[in-house]
Amino acid sequence: MLWRLLRQQKVIFFTDAGSSGVVWGFSLHDELELLVEAGLTPEEALTSATRLPATWLGIDSLVGTIPLNEIKNSKKISGVFVNGHWLDKFRIDVLLSDLSKKNTEMKDKYDWNKRGEY
């Protein structure tokens, strides 16, 4: 009956990205799939991650949603707009590769117990 509660409450989707082991962007797709598995339609799950937060933030006139028949299609990204600039899939992959290398290099230098000091 979780899906009924989610539908009635118009769940606003906020990922826990930034928590240990949760990777921004990637976790969003997993969480969308979990919402669909919990009983929401793909459109309801996507709406909870896009339109409803935008409405809550007061920017719904600037952003929209595209209903999906299969929520896993959200992982098929050809590009994204970031601050008004288009990043194609190749550029995204380069940035992710650079970030992965940087994180690997820095992993022994970061003290999780001092995270509030950074």
Tell me what the structure shows.
The mean pLDDT is 76. The chain has two domains: 1-75; 77-118, no CATH class. It contains five helices and two strands, in the order H-H-H-H-E-E-H. Strands 1-2 form a two-stranded antiparallel ribbon. The N and C termini lie far apart (42 Å). Strand 1 (79-82) and strand 2 (85-88) form a beta hairpin. The protein is globular and about 40 Å long. It is mainly α and 118 residues long. 45% of the residues lie in helices and 7% in strands.
How many structural domains does the protein architecture include?
Answer: 2
Radius of gyration: 17 Å
Sketch the major β-sheet. 2 strands, antiparallel
Mean pLDDT: 76
Residue share in helices? 40-55%
Give the DSSP E fraction (strand runs of 2 or more residues): 5-15%
Structural class, by secondary structure, is mainly alpha
Secondary-structure element pattern, one letter each: HHHHEEH
Short description:
The chain is mainly alpha-helical and 118 residues long. It has helices at residues 2-9, 26-37, 42-49, 51-57, 89-106; strands at residues 79-82, 85-88. Helix 2 crosses helix 3 (42-49).
Which key phrases capture this entry?
118 residues; 2 strands; mainly alpha; two-stranded antiparallel ribbon; 5 helices; 2 domains; single chain; globular
Break the fold down into its secondary structure elements and pairings.
Elements: H1 2-9, H2 26-37, H3 42-49, H4 51-57, E1 79-82, E2 85-88, H5 89-106
Antiparallel strand pairs: 1-2
